[in-house]
Amino acid sequence: MLKFVTLAVKVQLNVHDLNNETVAGNVTDIRVMEFLDENGTRREAPAVSGRMLKHWHYEGMRHLILNGLYTSVPLCAGCKVGEPIRPAEIKNGNLKQIAKPEEDAILSCVICDVHGYLIAREAEGESDRGISARRTSRAMFSWLMPVLGPETTSTQVIHTRVSQIRERGEGEQAAQMIFNKSYASGIYAFVSALDVDRIGLVELNLGSSNPYVINNNDRKNRIKVALEAYRYLISGQMGASLSHAIPHMNPIEVFVAYSEVGPLPFPVSPMYSDYLSKTVGLFPQHAKFLYWGQKTPEGVIKKEKISEIFDELLGKVEE
C-alpha cells in the first residue's frame, strides 16, 4: 500500500492575489520575498507562503467531504465550517476548541488527523494546570516561489465600491470607497509531501501491534481525499480573492514520487532548472516517479494527462 508521496509542481499564474498581506489604510500590497538565484545573486519577487498552500489543501479536503464525494469521512465542528480552531465542538451556540485524547481527535476528524492541531490553553483556575497538546501535520508544504529565470511582475490596481445608500451628512453624494490592491504574475513552483503511512496513526501506540485507531477502509478514504485535494490546489483554487481574482493558471510540470516501502526525501524544488535529474539522483531505489510536462526525463514514467498521475496514486491506495 502507498506509504509516502511527494509532489513538485510548476505552474504559471497570471494576475493572482494570493498573498495580499501588507495593509496600510486603503492600500493592500502583495508579499515580496528575498531569495538567491542559482548564482547566489540576491533577488526579490512576489511569493506565497506555505501556510497559504496548506490552508487551501485543507479547504480542498473540506469541500470534497461536504459536497458528498467522501460522505463517510468525518469532520469536527471547527473544520466543518472552515475555522482553524481544532479539534472543536459547538457548546452553548459557540465554537470552542476541545482538549481531547489524540485517539478521539483522530476518530472524529480527518483534518485534525491529516493537518494536525495545537491545543494551548491557559488554566481556568488557580489550582488547575494549563493544557498543551499537539499533533504534527502529515501534509507538508513549501512556499510558492518564482521559478529562476523568467520574469515576475506585480502591479497595483485601484478599485472602488459604490453604494446607493446615501451617507448621513453627505446629502446627495453617494458613498464611495476607493482602495488599492496588488496583483502579480509569474511562473511558480512548490513542493509538498504527504506522509501517508502516518494518517490515522497514534504516535504513542507505535509499540503496539496496531498503532492505528481507524480501520483500513476508513484510512483508505482519508488518504484518497488528501490526495484528491492536491488536484484542486494545482488548478489554482487557492487565495483569499477567489470571488473576483481566480488566478489564470496554466500547469507546466507535475512531478510525483511515491513509495510503498517507507518515507522519501523531499524533491528538489522546480524553481531550479535541473530539479528533475537531481531529484531522481537523490531518491532511494524504492521510489517510483511519475511526470507530466514537456520534458522526457530518464527513469521517470511520463503521463499524457495530469489525471493519470492521480489515478495511479489512488489505485495504489486500494492495493
Characterization of this structure:
It comes from Thermodesulfobacterium commune DSM 2178. Pfam families: DevR. InterPro entries: CRISPR-assoc_Cas7/Cst2/DevR (IPR010154), CRISPR-Cas7/Cst2/DevR (IPR052681). Keywords: Antiviral defense. The protein has helices at 50-66, 77-80, 102-108, 110-115, 216-234, 275-282, 306-318, and strands at residues 4-16, 22-24, 27-29, 32-36, 42-46, 88-91, 94-97, 117-121, 131-135, 139-141, 145-146, 153-166, 174-194, 248-259, 288-292, 301-302. It is 23% helix and 33% strand. It has 319 residues and is of the alpha+beta class. The chain is built from 7 helices and 16 strands. The longest helix is centred in the last third of the chain and has 19 residues, at 216-234. The chain has one domain (4-318).
Mean pLDDT reading? 87
Q: Termini separation (Å)?
A: 5 Å
Low-confidence stretches: 123-127
Question: Structural class from helices and strands?
Answer: alpha+beta
Number of H- or I-type helical stretches: 7
Helical content (DSSP H or I, runs of 4+)? 10-25%
* Net shape: globular
Largest sheet, strands/sense/barrel: 10 strands, mixed
Q: Strand portion, in percent?
A: 25-35%
Please indicate the count of domains.
1
Oligomeric category: single chain
Report the C-alpha radius of gyration, rounded. 22 Å
Protein name: DevR family CRISPR-associated autoregulator
Keywords: Antiviral defense
Pfam family, one: DevR
Organism: Thermodesulfobacterium commune DSM 2178
